[in-house]
Amino acid sequence: MNLLAENAGAQIGILFLIRDDKLLAVASTGLSSNITFDSAINPEESDISSSSALNYVSRTHNSLILENAQEHQIYSRDLYIKKKPSKIIALLATNKTRTISRISLF
User: Among 3.40.50.970, 3.30.1330.60, 3.30.450.40, 3.40.50.720, what is the CATH number of 2-105?
Assistant: First the structure.
């Protein structure tokens, strides 16, 4: 995660894996908050990542790169984006046609 975040110019990076239809945070870099790894995380209720960015990449299967997320009306209402850095990169990793992970970089 450190190398991925560093190459993307991000200060924070989180790797989410999907297991049994649940989103699990399994690795991170740059987080000051203490999160429990391998426990289910609901992005809508969590303040460690942008739920709207994760939902977008899950729904469209496209990567998302926002230079200033607060300028985009769709993302400006996201609780994470309101209080955190505005640059966001969200990626989806797939194995054949099945989504296996989501990556958020801030």
Answer: 3.30.450.40
Q: How far apart are CA 92 and CA 73, in angstroms?
A: 22
What count of Cα atoms within 13 Å lies in the side-chain half-sphere of residue 22?
A: 9
Q: 43 pLDDT band (50/70/90 cuts)?
A: low
Beta bridge partners of 54: none
Strands across the sheet containing 98-105: 22-29, 13-19, 98-105, 88-95, 64-66
Q: Is 85 helix (H, G, I), strand (E, B) or coil?
A: coil
